[in-house]
Each structure stands twice: as C-alpha cells, then as structure tokens.
Input
Amino acid sequence: MSTFGEHPFMQQHEVGSEHDGERLDTLLPALLQISRTAARRVGALGLVSLNGVRAPGTQRLRLGELIGWHQDTLSLSLQLSLPVLHADDEVLVVHKPQGLAVHKGPLVEDSLALRLLALPGSGLAHRLDRGSSGALLIGRNPKALAALAALMEQGKIDREYLAIAFGVIATDTQTIDLPLFATDEPRGNLPKVIVDRERGARAVTHLTVLSRGKTCTLILLRLETGRTHQIRAHLRAIGHPLLGDPRYGDVAANERARNTYGTDRPMLHAHRLTFPHPTTHQLLSVTAWQEPDCQRLFPAIAQLSATAR
Output
C-alpha cells in the first residue's frame, strides 16, 4: 500500500541510486512491462505518480522517490487516456485531469462522456466542474449506474475534496450550513449559485484546515449535501473563495497566484471517494493522486492529505 493516502490497488517502486537523475519515462518500459512508445504515452498522459503526485514522463527522478501506478488498469487507462484508479465489472473510478469537460457540448471537442463511448453502457455517477480534478465515479452498465445513483441520493457515497482557499482561515474546523439557490445568471464571470435563506435548498459542507500559508489555506471538505457549485458558493460566502476561481473568487488574488504559481483554474480536487460496491456491498475507498499545480502552492500536500480523515 502506498505511503501517500489509501491506494490499495496501486503498485509502487522506490527509485534507487542507479536511476537518480534519469527521466521518469526512461524507467517506465521495464517497470510497467510496456514498449517505449507506450511508455512515452503513459508519461504524456500522467498515468503514473511520484510521491503521490501525478507526474509527467519528462520529470527527473530523485533517489528514494516512490513511483506509483495501477498495473491492472493500465490498458484501460491508455484506452481512456486518463488514470483509472479502480476497475471491476460494475464500477470505475477515474482520475479526471483539470481542463477535461465531463459532458459533451456544442463547443466541447473532448470530454469524459465522449471517451466513455469506448465502454458501451457506461455512465457518470456524478460530475466535476471542468476546472476541477480528481476522483470520479462511473457505473459500467445501466443497472450499476442506477444503483450508484440511489446510493448518492441516500447519502451513502462519501466525497472528500481538497481545496486551496484564498486568505488564512483561522478556525481549524467548521460546518458551513447555508442554503443555496441557483440563479439564471448566464454569464460565466458571475456567481451562478448564491446563499438565499428564503429560496435556497439546504446545503452543508464540513471544513477542516490542513495547512496555512501566508495568503491561502489548504483545506479538506466533506459534502453532506451535493448542490450545484456548493463548495465554490460556500467558500465565497465565508470570505475565503477558491483560489483561481474566475466566477466565485477574488480577481486580484487570482491574478497574483497566476503570475507567481501558474495557477489557472479553481483549486479544487476530488480527493477521495468511499462507497459500498453496488453488487458486493463491500466498502471501497479510492484516493486520487495529487496534482502538480496544487503541490506548487503546498509542497507537502501528499503527506498532509494522507493523514486527513
């Protein structure tokens, strides 16, 4: 099992002195038992991790680093062009990279829904915003998908998110219990969801601070409800919007983060999914890798998130 979070389905290899300084993709053919061409594609797609963080094949290795990968799902990962964290006959959990749309659309050239056409009968059990990254749950057939939808409705799918919020959050833990209302605002630079105590639906988010920086805070979030843009609207409401969020965030803070760290998206990451398998009822807990842009802001993010529960 990986040191960095709960990855019960993952293989790992510690970098020895003979490979110190090499590019990651030069080691992948022997390690993953694949061709050099496939290894370059694995590296380009970020299908492996270094110390719990999704890594490009061009990254240089250092002595003692842990390379992580999912051997059993590697061929499926290559087929879908994204990491598959868990796969069985009923369920997939994939790692959605930031920038990949979930649904098809007239202006969307690529999406997770389009990629799933390669797996007839498969469908999304929930969704992530285009700018978000991390673990996404998929039913592999209509029966499994209906069962997962029922579990979601019953609140039996536990979703944990990591977020980097603007400002320093003083309280270590808090529960945000504020009703949310989805407006008809069509413009993408204005909030779509607002706090509205009269018209809003109940929305509850549990927040735990993992680490504080000078101008931002790394937090773990658990959703008790699943409203549209719930995390983004709730963090804005408490005065600590997601860093990099063009719709709900702080314009000046976003610009500074872009210039300093290359932050170009809302810093929200679906960290862990815990749910009963729809057929066996066995409890599964699947943790996504961390993303490099999050690590630039909090270098120890993999270790911090591994101990968060």
